[in-house]
What does this fold into?
Amino acid sequence: MTQGSSIAPIAHSEEEAATVFGEEWRANVTAAYRWMRLGRALDSRMQALQRQGRVGFYGAATGQEAVNVAAGLATTADDWVFPGLREQLVALVRGHALETYAHHLFADDRDPGRGRNMPCHPTAREVHYVSMSSVIGTQISHAVGLAYALRRKEAAGVSVAFFGDGATSSNDFHAGLNFAGVLGLPAVFCCANNQWAISVPASRQTAAPSFAAKATEYGLRGERVDGTDYIATYAALASALRAARAGAGPTLLEFVTYRVTPHSSSDDPTRYQPGDWPVRAASHDPVARLELWMREHELLDGAAAETIGREAEAQVRAAVEVAEGTGPPTARSLTEDVYAVPRSGGP
Ligand SMILES: Cc1ncc(C[n+]2csc(CCOP(=O)(O)OP(=O)(O)O)c2C)c(N)n1
Ligand SMILES: [Mg+2]
It folds into this structure.
């Protein structure tokens, strides 16, 4: 992993870690590191495969792994996830099989969506991970609708919505936060502020002092968190989830991260980002920061980190191999999941 001297480890004592994760803090942090390495390996492989013409599209979450892994580990099976483009790691941590996700990326016959959605738009019903609409911000209203349903059914669980800094300018952001605030719904709003909405910098997205500050006027709790600090990120999520479960209503969390990669495989950021951006972004790498902290606290050494990285790459390669060896969806699948009783005479 990157070990540049410009990268500062996260700064927490072991006592703090024990307060956040309980006695099992070492196990939590170690599991988190493994998941982050898997996310990193997945991004790197899929971006390469897209360039080779083997998958159609990819939107990486590089630099946002701490948020995704913390969300995957802090939520419980009762909770629901409404993702944006970059939260697939949340589904994997919650138990969605990597192989199934690879089938989705290749849009093959074993993709649960039967190849009907763009890559990076999976559905993972078994872990309450709802397929996103690509229309920016709409998942916020969907998440609030689900939170309202949970309330009306007196069911357990919290609805967790993910969206970017750009999505805070959408109508759904206003409607969703307002509705959730008025009704005090069990929801957590996670704004992954990676500082770019394609080419629009966060400074052009709002005149408010921060995205978290917007919570106040909706009557929500709001917190701005360093999203490259795994422990701080987990602590903020756990606290917001606890509040929602206790009936104390919704929270807006802003996770400040750095978009390391292009917006997606269809983007060229050299046309709009300042020249020093890649270096700045790399100096906030959440995976390297956690790794340095683990080394300081003797939870990891260089050899173990390398082994974990190699294992992650092998897992990704194996899943890709299976998916690439699977054929496309059959023509007949066109009418599956569309009609309760398929009409005869179809393909
Ligand atoms: C309503 C709408 N407008 C524009 C787009 C095109 N678009 C796709 S992603 C994106 C930027 C989203 O930025 P942000 O919310 O910060 O999320 P990020 O991609 O940075 O994670 C835009 C404008 C869209 N999908 N939907
Ligand atoms: Mg963004």
Summary: The chain is about 45% helix and 10% strand.
